[in-house]
Amino acid sequence: MTIQQTIGFQVKQLANQLNRVAQQQISQAGLIEIPESQQWVLSYLYDHQTKEIFQSDLQQALGFGKSTISELLARMQKNDLIRLKQSAKDHRRKQVLLTTTSLQKAAIVNQSISAVEKQLTNGLTNNRLTELFQLIQQLKQNLKNINSNKE
Asked: Has residue 61 got a pLDDT over 70?
């Protein structure tokens, strides 16, 4: 088996191509100053505007560590992309919200993501997409098992 025939190599190549296309879309939309990880947060908050979203929700949904998400949110707050508000349900927790400024940016990010996703999945049936997601989940689980076996 050559390196090009490994799953890791193919996934990395796909990720690189996807990143280039996504950055091109974002650049055309004039949002190049917003890093990719912040775009994910904006998109998630935009998709869940009707729910109370907390740091732990973002951490779990996007797969970031606690310190990483804390630093990310601090930068976003400094750049007026998010604001924190005391939760109405639990006064110990702070809800993460889009700002008026970032609402439009988040909508553009979502439109860009949708456009890339549409191009990426062109020609794939729903069954093939379901199978792809199942395969990806299996690969993730296999990697988790490798890590847990080392502990």
From this structure: yes
pLDDT of residue 27 exceeding 90: no
The two tokens of residue 141 are 């689980």
Predicted pLDDT at 133: 95
Q: State if pTM tops 0.90.
A: no
Cα 114 off chain centre by? 13
Residues 6+ apart with CB under 8 A from 53: 44, 45, 95, 96, 97
Query: Burial code of 40-72, b = ≥16 C-beta within 10 A, e = fewer?
Result: bbbbbbbeeeeebbbbebbbeeeebeeeebeeb
Check pLDDT > 90 for residue 91: no
